Predict the structure.
Amino acid sequence: MKYRLLGKSGLRVSELALGTMTFGEDWGWGASKEASRQQFDLFVEQGGNFIDTAINYTEGTAEKYVGEFVKGQRERFVIATKYSLVRNRGDVNGAGNNRKNLMHSLDHSLKSLGVDYLDLFWLHAWDFTTPVEEIMRGLDDAVRAGKVLYVGISDTPAWIVSRANAIAELRGWSPFIALQIEYSLIERTPERDLLPMAQTLELGVTPWAALGGGVLTGKYLKDPQAQGRINDSSPRRSERNTAIATEVVKIAEEIGRPAAQVAINWVMRQPAVVSPIIGARSAEQLKESLAAAEFTLTPEQLARLDAVSQIDLGFPHDFLARDNIRDILSAGMFREIDVPRRRG
């Protein structure tokens, strides 16, 4: 496995990250401790060093398993965990982005993992109630205390992330170096604002759901009964997504690879993406996903996938991309102006 720098930092992470939301069976599904250990060992054997977990995954079991698995070799791993989702149900401050939950969650995660510090501490999701200054100062305090090395943000609107980093830079606080988002061939809406922001601010992107909840593996195309068991109201179940999955399967058959590897490989090749997060319920599933790093889709194959999954960027992006608008903004010399980060 190859390694990449995580955003605007010198932190080196494997090009695929091990997702641990399946570590533990507390939610009625997932992997046993033995199966989780097999996944971890396989990931390490393949050269992986980037492990993603969260305080609430499988009611805390995931963090405990990760802590046990890294024991005795902690320094070789980049351990990332998250706070914000419910830690203590019924306690109004037992969830959210606020400083109180931040500090309690951080100490709880350190204890569960059995480590002295985190390599990366994520804000898991934006709660729309906590002032951004409170969050950035709290995270900076955690960094200055030596409990956290870097901070990242997940599942948050682009305008909030950019504002947070501007405030952090202005006040000398630790900025976000990474962004975690849902991103796949069937979920390309981050291309409207989140991904351009990440490129501009040099945030390393770690996408989740690269397989679109299993849709991009092609399994629902092959098994009509499985299609019938899927909730038709799910945003991942649509004629558009079926067409995308069909094209993924066609390319997979052409190159002799599983469809899942094609879907993951496409995500790996996108701008700003550093390490897609790969989760599994068995070592066999994980091994198949990790093999997505063994090849590169051709420009022609990437173009086919781009075409079938293309989205409208919407206003103002489509408006600003019109030839007549570009013409009046550039005095008729748009093509002659060399702008390295020009979009479109």
Remarks:
- Strands lie at 3-5, 12-14, 17-19, 50-52, 78-83, 118-123, 148-154, 176-180, 204-205, 277-278.
- The mean pLDDT is 94.
- The chain has two domains: 3-212+258-296, 317-344.
- The longest helix spans residues 239-255.
